[in-house]
Amino acid sequence: MRRNIVHVGAGSLTYAIREIVEVAHRFEAAGRPIVWENIGDPIQKGETIAPWIRQTLHEIIDEDTSWGYCDTAGVRSTREFLAAEVNKRGGAQITPRDIIFFNGIGDAVAKVYGFLRRETRIIGPTPAYSTHSSAEAAHSGYEHLTYELDPYNNWMPDIDDLRMKVKYNDSIAGILLINPDNPTGAVYPRPVLEDIVRLAREHNLFLICDEIYAHIVYNGFTPLHLSELTDGVCAIVMRGISKEYPWPGARCGWIEVINRAQDPVFGRYVDSLLASKRLEVCSTTVPQMSIPRIMGDSRYGDHLARRAATFEARAKEAHAILKDVEGIQVNLPNGAFYMTVLFEDGRLNDRQTLPIESPTIRTMVQDLVPNVPTDQRFVYYLMGATGICVVPLSGFCCRRLGFRVTLLECDDKLRKWTFQTLAQAIREYLNS
């Protein structure tokens, strides 16, 4: 090319959760059936939509207005409903103007990081959710900045680590938190959130809080939204319907802008996000129209409670199977529908293997494992030997070694087999 047309951050656009699918399909084509534990899609794992939710959507489709464009920021009645829901919680008060819809949280993430001033950095947790870490790194052209989540303290943020990094890097303008967390399943209690808000206020930073799993909490936790305790700190909260209804294929997410008027620079930045949406006209109309009718339905609370109880039972089931396996650290998830399995330091090396019956697949694995992180090596051998497809923790912008597995499988027999097979495979691999 006459000019280099590649963006400086192009190499940072990685998404381990989907990238492993290409390898899995190659194994599948070679005769290895795959158990898909790589992605948080409840529908793929057999969850069915509640009949009343399905019927509500049918009724919306029958309305002519659902087939047209909506306001750029989103359907007005839906934004009014969501603003009212935020205001009911107490804490920060917002208006419909503070709600902006996007085509899924992925679209929101791309815009939120993409329209930051180039030298502005957002520090996020590690393990990191790939959509956030890749977008931030691509925006800046540098490696994503992270603060530690402590696996020996239920994956809580290391506030001292975060404080030191914010203090000594004045390019940091914002802090990202994901609550409940993906990939760990951690849920942050009020004191932890208050510490982060206090730190943001002290250094005049804004917050980004991904709350896509906010209403999937269990083990005694209840939903706690950042808007309830920002106390004047500017923030962007990300929400969506993909995990709650669940309807991941709707690609419907929104941001709630907190304390927009507190800082004129923050206000102008938010205006730029809305301007970027105008170039696309608007986001998808039908799923937006469904929100007041479904979330406002008297049955929705029971719907959320039932699903939370289901994931609580599955989390306890998986934890019971894996917790006593030597060589790993496993925390009981308290939210979302993931579990992170951490290998203890020094337990992995580049010589360990699992027996693979098929010579073809064995060769494929052997060709894949040179010069990859040792947890990725384990993941390839696991998939080759058992067909279970998980995501290595090193794929979550993390120096620690392990993997993420979901709690989504609806087939009780298959789910139990999956975790029992994982436990046995870990034992064999670490002793090989």
How would you describe this protein?
It is a single chain. With about 425 residues, the protein is an alpha/beta fold. It has two domains: about 10-45 and about 300-430, Aspartate Aminotransferase, domain 1, CATH 3.90.1150.10; about 65-295, Type I PLP-dependent aspartate aminotransferase-like (Major domain) (Aspartate Aminotransferase, domain 2, 3-Layer(aba) Sandwich). Helices cover about 40% and strands about 15% of the residues. It is built from 13 helices and 14 strands. The protein has helices at about 15-30, 50-60, 75-90, 105-115, 130-140, 160-165, 190-205, 265-280, 285-295, 300-320, 360-370, 375-385, 410-430, and strands at about 35, 100, 120-125, 145-150, 155, 170-180, 205-210, 235-240, 255-260, 330, 340-345, 390, 390, 400-405. The strands form three sheets. Strands 2-9-8-7-6-3-4-5 form an eight-stranded mixed sheet, with helices on both faces. The protein has a four-stranded antiparallel sheet with strand order 10-11-14-13. Strand 6, helix 7 and strand 7 (about 205-210) form a beta-alpha-beta unit. Helix 2 (about 50-60) packs across helix 9 (about 285-295), helix 6 packs parallel to helix 7 (about 190-205) and helix 10 (about 300-320) runs parallel beside helix 13. The longest helix has 23 residues, at about 300-320. It is globular, with a radius of gyration of 22 Å.
